[in-house]
Amino acid sequence: MIDENSVRRTEQTYANPDVVAQRERLLSMLAPQPGERVLDIGSGPGCLLEAIAEAVGPTGAAHGVDPSPAMNALAATRTDGMPWVRIDDGDAVALPYPDGVFDAAVSTQVHEYVADLAVALGELRRVLRPGGRALILDTDADSPVWHTTDRELDERVLAAWEEHLVHPRLPRTLRGLLRRAGFRVTEQRVHVMFNSQMTADSYSAGTTARFADGQQGLTEADAETWLADLRARSDEGDYLQSIDRYLFLATVA
């Protein structure tokens, strides 16, 4: 359940420089053009949706769809004054749009949480026009790396984090899934989130607590021990964190 505190944390995460850089990478690959109709699946607080709306302009249309009323309210506030933006309740397996209505669609860390990928990718293809393009970004659960002194605890924390994903290694199979759904993959890229310090505005500072969430038998003391070790590594100038996000650009075959 996404509550007000979750919304606030998400908005803060979307504003940090690492996530801004990721959003710029997405926009560069998607390349929305003036007059296009573009869909953001899992639009969240509306940061990417706002940027898409600016790119397509008032002659185009930018649609966001998300299952969270709280996120949709935040996105509506962010895009207020852009009448060519529309935000709808819905999710990836039941997109509330007619067939072939969009020129392009994007999803950021959505499909790794979707149980029925065949249905979700079929829905994605259905709402795109012939030749329309889709851009999907998801994370591989084996990619997060932190430098810690307690390797065993670090492995338990990462295993606990993996439990919240339905498809923790989706990027490895996504190209084939897209092909079977009627897409042709035209470009594949990796975007690395890398921090050499745990600064207040770094991506890793905003996400470390969520990696220690009580799964795998972790206690609050375990989580604090892990976090204290990371803070010590940063204070000593010995910090390293990275995580890989994989981007797949595809067109309707």
Automatic annotation (TrEMBL):
User: Any idea which GO molecular function terms this record carries?
Assistant: methyltransferase activity
What residues does the Methyltransferase type domain cover?
39-136
Q: Which Pfam families match?
A: Methyltransf_11 (PF08241)
Highest taxon of source: Bacteria
**Cross-referenced InterPro entries:** Methyltransf_11, Methyltransf_Superfamily, SAM-dependent_MTases_sf
User: What CDD domains does UniProt report for this protein, alphabetically?
Assistant: AdoMet_MTases (cd02440)
| Keyword list, A-Z | Methyltransferase, Transferase
Read off the PANTHER family from this record: METHYLTRANSFERASE
Q: What's the protein here called?
A: Methyltransferase domain-containing protein
Native species = Pseudonocardia yunnanensis
